[in-house]
Amino acid sequence: MKTIETTVPLDRKSAILAAALAVFAEKGIEAATIDDIRQRSQASVGSIYHHFGTKENIAAALFAQGLDDYWNGLLAGVREAEDARAAIHILLATHLDWIVARPELARFLFARRQAVSPAHDQAIRQLTADHFKTMLALLKPWFQQGILRRLAPELYAPLLLGPAQELARHWLGGRLRQDPRAAIDELSAAAWRSLATDEALAATLSLQRPAHKEPGK
Amino acid sequence: MKTIETTVPLDRKSAILAAALAVFAEKGIEAATIDDIRQRSQASVGSIYHHFGTKENIAAALFAQGLDDYWNGLLAGVREAEDARAAIHILLATHLDWIVARPELARFLFARRQAVSPAHDQAIRQLTADHFKTMLALLKPWFQQGILRRLAPELYAPLLLGPAQELARHWLGGRLRQDPRAAIDELSAAAWRSLATDEALAATLSLQRPAHKEPGK
Amino acid sequence: MKTIETTVPLDRKSAILAAALAVFAEKGIEAATIDDIRQRSQASVGSIYHHFGTKENIAAALFAQGLDDYWNGLLAGVREAEDARAAIHILLATHLDWIVARPELARFLFARRQAVSPAHDQAIRQLTADHFKTMLALLKPWFQQGILRRLAPELYAPLLLGPAQELARHWLGGRLRQDPRAAIDELSAAAWRSLATDEALAATLSLQRPAHKEPGK
Amino acid sequence: MKTIETTVPLDRKSAILAAALAVFAEKGIEAATIDDIRQRSQASVGSIYHHFGTKENIAAALFAQGLDDYWNGLLAGVREAEDARAAIHILLATHLDWIVARPELARFLFARRQAVSPAHDQAIRQLTADHFKTMLALLKPWFQQGILRRLAPELYAPLLLGPAQELARHWLGGRLRQDPRAAIDELSAAAWRSLATDEALAATLSLQRPAHKEPGK
DNA sequence: GATGAATGAGCATTCATTCAT
DNA sequence: CATGAATGAATGCTCATTCAT
């Protein structure tokens, strides 16, 4: 996917998208005005409407594009992973990398208010569901091997990404200074603990063996 | 705190707040109009402005009230807990109970867009920070006992509540049918795993066979 | 009905209606802008929308008011008539008097393009149909006495008012200089000829006497 | 004149005209947009402007074309008539036939709001006046023979076509189901009564002779 | 305290028209 | 001749807020 933030001269349509992304991320879809987009994109109102027809449509286009980009990164990461723990680590890392690389897109994507019309909303849910299914398929072997726990399906995303997501929200909201990527190890460890079966988890706890060992740190 | 959803006849001011909450939760603060609130509250525009002066002020009042209610429940829960694991469980349970009991307030509170003016925003952050500090103080003993891990402070909330929060968002957004409280045990188990020190955790894993080990708890 | 063109200071709502009528008559409903109305009425946009909600609604209000005024005059006229021929004469006179007295309202009423929404349109048709029924009831005796011809119902209005209407349209369109009321006698004579039974008509033709005369062609 | 409604593949220009007529008739000139015309004609905006330069011009072209077509039919009819009464009948018949054959053109022609610019308007009036003069010339003999009444010139059109026009308007507006041509005889009888001199008229009344006869019917 | 009329800046969107390709 | 991207003035309407009663 072509990167949006590039500084290469964009054609009108892309320029409008880029400007819209910036504005949407800054003030939210509702609060963003066509005029904001116009000023930022150097396009005329007419041109904007010629290409998109509606403010909603611009948002929808960005949404689809962004969602795609996000998930593709995520899936690519998992495909390369050699074991479950690495997969989880890579997922977290990719997730946070992406957010830090595209904070505007992230802010926009994760705001997810109704702003986008029901019609578009449906499309988005479908897209997400599809990607999610693909993801689960990639993880399947590890479920079968008893390494990852079988849970109610709605719990996977929260347990895996919930903490990272929460941290990212803080960062995106300006309520956190530090680079959230610094927490990747911690977060992936937590996700691993949350998702691993007791057996798999026990095997990775740093003590275990000498029952009498004293808790470092 | 006076419950808002009550059906007892409310005085004007409360009626306005109740109506505002409903409207804000439904369409977001930005999209909600004074007129929406007027219709729902049966008050006149003039009356609304007499009591609150600004749309922002209504939101701020609700925010303060809601935040207070939320945190008080949370803190009360932890105060009763007898050990760290129970504390975590009670936190998760209280969190989800509250959300299910007051979905509108939750939706409103967690939306947290800039909508609220910088001035109010500052107040809110302060309030949250204070409560958070109190919470940490309550947990302090278990840190000292080596039961809970010492982490970068910004990670506590995400690890503890992130998954629950993520699940709750899905539920509040209508993207999840099941009652999120059904996941309390699972979520608190995950939070425990994420926050416990290796030793404390190892003691609670359900296998551990190494005969000479003692399961604690 | 309160006359609109009065110069007595009007309350806002009436002022808006009066201004709207002027503008609508001048450029048509579509072409008239809210801003035109605002300037002419000295009201603010907000005020206009406070009272009417829609441009359409303003038009509809005028329409209802105008139609009522028009028909009431017409019906009152017929009620006073002593015989069929007088009734016809009075109808034509009232019709043209009204048009000359309220050219703007007439121009507006007779334009009758879709401009008014289907909903309002339905109401208008109903109103017209009701009045028309009343009118026919008033004329009934003369039908029963064999003075007025029985025709397909859709022909009465055209035969009675069609010529006057056509003339009025020319006048309202500025394509006719002379006062259309000058043609009242001529038009009512024509209407009488068109609607009277042969017997009733024969009795009023200015010659007739030479009983044996054959007019040949 | 080339018929517009033909289904033979049209060249661009004609296709545009045909589409414009349809759109103008449907929503009125003002409300019709170039884009409506573009969609219906399958032409591009550029092409439309290449051929006509202005929306007004399209309307004017249609107007001229339509007016010509209408009047030619009318005049041709009168030329064939053998006596005054037949002439009137043929005029009415031609008028209604034309309307029923080209309802869109009729709707468009008779709407006659200012929509067409003053310049074009002038041209149209001239055209109409010329045709009207020709028409009167054709009728002249019957005036001289005392068969048709001498009236103020502005009354001829209303008396002759007013009723038919009124009926046609109802039909074009969808407020009348029956085919207006069914009323030709009735309307031409009325026009004859309205325009004939008393003598000429008396000769055609169905009774006349037995002065003492009682009004059967 | 309550009411609702009034205000006017602001907004999304439309549309005739131009013009480079 | 045809195309469609681009333009920007204009429009109907919304909405927070004020204020006289």
TrEMBL record, chains A, B, C, D:
InterPro entries referenced in this protein's UniProt entry, alphabetically: DNA-bd_HTH_TetR-type_CS, Homeodomain-like_sf, HTH-type_TetR-like_transc_reg, HTH_TetR, Tet_transcr_reg_TetR-rel_C_sf
DNA-binding region extent: 33-52
Keyword DNA-binding included in the entry's annotation: yes
Keywords of this entry: DNA-binding, Repressor, Transcription, Transcription regulation
Keyword ATP-binding: no
A GO molecular-function descriptor: DNA-binding transcription factor activity
Record protein name field: TetR/AcrR family transcriptional regulator
Residue ranges of coiled coil: none
Pfam families in UniProt: TetR_N
Organism whose genome encodes this protein: Rugamonas fusca
Ranges of residues in domain HTH tetR-type: 10-70
